[in-house]
Design brief:
This protein is α/β, with parallel strands linked by helices. The protein has helices at 19-30, 52-63, 78-89, 112-140, 151-155, 161-181, 206-211, 218-224, 266-276, 288-308, 354-363, 374-377, 393-402, 404-407, 517-521, 534-539, 549-564, and strands spanning 10-13, 34-38, 67-71, 94-97, 143-148, 186-193, 235-239, 242-246, 249-250, 283-284, 335-342, 345-352, 419-428, 436-449, 453-464, 469-480, 507-512, 572-579, 588-596, 599-606, 612-621, 634-636, 639-644. The strands form three sheets. The chain has a 13-stranded mixed sheet. Strands 3-2-1-4-5-6-7-8 form an eight-stranded mixed sheet, sandwiched between helices. Helix 1 links the parallel strand 1 (10-13) and strand 2. Helix 1 runs parallel beside helix 2 and helix 3 runs parallel beside helix 4 (112-140). The radius of gyration is 31 Å and the shape is elongated. It starts with 9 loop residues before the first strand and ends with a strand. The structure holds 3R-hydroxydecanoyl-coenzyme A. The site of 3R-hydroxydecanoyl-coenzyme A has 30 residues, from helix 13, helix 14, strand 13, strand 16 and strand 18. Keywords: Fatty acid metabolism, Lipid metabolism, Lyase, Oxidoreductase, Peroxisome.
Length: 645
């Protein structure tokens, strides 16, 4: 592999007159970078000023054929240092925030000056210098930043409270600027060096001191600043020719109350303290999303415990915490009557009325602009009926309400915001009435390891109030990032997807979803906040809230019914889909269809991006018929297309 070069790059190293900074500057200079050697030239306690140190390093770089310029400003005037880079070399690519001083005192003896000076040089100096370069980094879509922390910050060190605080301060600064810089290819990392320098020479024993050469750390910093290094947001410890990544970890912790409606008492905290502080199965937290996701899990576990404590009997479900990913459906249009647990599954009952059927139909894009949709939107219509896919709603509500999926991962790092709908199957066995009660039996039938996550398969059987089964379904949830739960990759229980024929689609219908589509759809029962709340969506790794998978399914099923069943819901038999990519509210769904007898294969794309979002999908009809007469079709290249605005 090629040597790591910095030709054409401009690098600022602060505090580069000696020790680590000098070592960094020399390696950058040797590898083709133009280097701004910043050093105020003061003593290690911040006293005095001199241009000597910086000048000597500039001379050293130049004597080896490199390019360098000196700067003698304090890092608190970081904008001046950046200006030197711009004035001399015309750009800035890398900032190594290395400058530092010490004012060691035991905590009780730290004066305001001791405190302020240390915070100024380490924390404010890093802020000022990096911030001055930031607009240039963003404009050129490239930047590399190193901030320098210390073991005194990470672990504490007697007599260095002011310095420890500043050093942890730069870690926090780095954590956030790494996130903010990501979209502009600005990488920020923390180096935690243990080097023989003027800061450490009388702190470390002489034999250890001799092994801690700055030259053994400089290559680590130089690699982190190279354009080919993808690392960002990390804390890297380096010393004596060794480097390692350092992480914050957290214990699995303990619930502090038995039920969601109980308060937490100090005694309960005392009694759980061993578990709270047990680090034997500590896990690392990669992001605020992960950390908060675990809190959501704690809330859900408490709710699940509350339910289990009902000892298998029916329990009264009430809406609970608003931000919960498993938010209650008790206020939803499809009203949850009650819920019970059986051996390996759960039963729930739902009351529904024409209002719920209409709300669902609107949620999946039925519109009065299409006259044949009126039967789904107006209870006074002579053929008023439910869209058959209404029967997918209750399985999701039951799963979320009972936590039967979350329960499977008790004690694991389960983040509900990372539970995606993977696949859905629904077979309608009998027509449903305009109103009534649905009893839904839901159970886990298998778990699969899919490499990037775990799939949980759930069977869902739906009965009407007379006890007749009206539907059988299967949903799969894909828990992104959950690994090592099972060795199984496939399951005999899984209803398979089916690939479409290898020819151009026979028909295609496009329909733009509303920006408020998820906000509307969720009123039918799936209150999962990843579909509405930007913060919760970010916990799942999404930039903005995503559309419910079942909402997209509803759109496509409608398109198939329109195209091949005259929009007659009684001709619907079954549907199977895989949700292969998320959809954003406001995007246009394009359902491409292929007829093979009574099976209509389909694939749904987002028209704006061309991404396939539903794959391996089909609708089985009892009978195929022509589209209703009032639907106007345009024929283009053998593809019949209708755009619903
Ligand atoms: C707790 C309460 C229950 C909650 C129920 C749901 C509540 C709802 O509110 C939630 C939602 O509606 S979420 C929105 C709808 N769903 C989505 O947007 C998911 C879209 N899909 C994806 O992003 C990826 O497919 C993704 C991320 C799922 C997988 O992508 P990759 O990691 O890139 O996987 P890939 O490399 O393509 O394949 C690896 C193996 O996984 C199988 N696989 C892929 N997608 C799958 C899917 N959607 N469902 C099931 N299996 C899937 C692949 O086949 C492959 O396995 P194998 O090698 O064995 O074939």
């Amino acid at each position: 592999m090629a040597d790591l070069r910095f030709d054409g790059r401009v690098v600022i190293v602060t505090g580069a007159g000696a020790g680590l900074g000098r070592a960094y500057a020399l390696v950058f200079g040797e590898r083709g970078a133009s280097v701004v050697v910043n050093d105020l030239g003061g003593g290690r306690h911040g006293e005095g000023k001199s241009s000597k140190a910086a000048d000597a390093v500039v001379e050293e770089i130049r004597s080896k054929g490199g390019k360098a310029v000196a700067n003698y400003d304090s890092v608190v005037d970081g904008d001046k240092i950046v200006q030197t880079a711009l004035d001399t070399f015309g750009r800035i690519d890398v900032i190594v925030n290395n400058a530092g001083i010490l004012r060691d005192k035991s905590f009780a003896r730290i004066s305001n000056d001791d405190w302020d000076l240390i915070q100024d040089v380490h924390l404010k100096g890093t802020f000022k210098t990096t911030q001055a370069a930031w607009p240039h980094f963003r404009k050129q879509n490239y930047g590399r930043v190193i901030v320098t922390a210390s073991n005194s910050g990470l672990y504490g060190n007697f007599g260095q409270a002011n310095y420890s605080a500043a050093k942890m301060g730069v870690v926090g600064l780095n954590n956030t600027i790494a996130i903010e810089g990501r979209k502009n290819n600005i990488h920020c990392n923390v180096i935690v060096p243990t080097a023989a320098s003027r800061l450490t020479e009388d702190i470390l024993p002489p034999d250890v001191f001799a092994q801690l050469k700055p030259e053994l750390i400089a290559p680590v910093v130089v690699w982190l600043c190279h354009e080919s290094c993808g690392e960002t947001g990390s804390i890297i410890e380096a010393a004596a020719g060794w480097a390692g990544k350092c992480h914050l970890v957290r214990s699995t912790g303990s619930l502090l109350r038995a039920r969601i409606d109980e308060i937490v008492t100090p005694e309960a905290v005392r009694d759980s303290w061993d578990k709270v502080t047990d680090m034997s199965s500590a896990v690392r937290m990669e992001s605020i999303g992960e950390a908060s996701g675990a809190l959501i899990t704690a809330i859900e576990e408490t709710r699940e415990k509350s339910q289990s404590s009902a000892d298998g009997k029916r329990v009264d479900m009430r809406p609970t915490v608003g931000c919960s990913a498993l938010a209650s459906v008790a206020n939803s249009a499809v009203f949850l009557l009650d819920l019970a647990f059986f051996s390996n599954g759960v039963v729930s009952k739902f009351n529904y009325s024409p209002r719920d059927l209409i709300l669902y139909a609107l949620g999946v894009g039925s519109t009065v602009a299409n006259p044949s949709d009126l039967r789904f939107l107006y209870e006074g219509h002579e053929d008023f009926s439910a869209l058959p896919t209404f029967l997918v709603l209750q399985g999701v509500s039951t799963t979320m309400e009972t936590g039967i999926v979350g329960n499977l991962f008790s004690g694991k790092d389960f983040n509900p915001a990372k539970v995606l709908h993977g696949e859905q199957y629904l077979e309608v066995l009998r027509p449903m009435k305009e109103e009534g009660v649905l009893e839904v039996h839901c159970k886990v039938v298998d778990m699969l390891d899919k490499g990037s996550g775990t799939v949980v398969l759930l069977d869902v059987d739906t009965f009407d109030e007379s006890g007749e089964q009206i539907a059988h379904g299967q949903m799969s949830t894909f828990i992104v990032g959950m690994k090592g739960i099972t060795n199984k990759r496939t399951s005999p229980h899984n209803v398979p997807t089916a690939e479409p024929p290898k020819r151009a689609p026979d028909a295609s219908i496009s329909q733009k979803t509303l920006l408020d589509q998820a906000a509307l759809y969720r009123l039918s029962g799936d209150r999962n906040p990843i579909h509405i709340d930007p913060t919760m969506a970010s916990f799942g790794g999404f930039k903005t809230p995503i559309l419910h998978g079942l909402c997209s399914l509803g759109f496509s099923a409608r398109h198939v019914l329109q195209q091949y069943a005259g929009n007659d819901p009684t001709k619907f038999k079954a549907i199977k889909v895989r949700f292969s990519k998320p959809v954003l509210p406001g995007e246009t769904l394009q359902t491409d269809m292929w007829q093979e007898g009574k099976r209509i294969h389909f694939q749904t794309k987002v028209k704006e991006t061309g991404s396939v979002v539903i794959s391996g999908a089909y609708v089985d009809l009892t009978e195929v018929s022509a589209p209703p007469p009032k639907v106007c079709l345009n024929t283009t290249q053998n593809i019949k297309t209708k755009d619903i605005k």
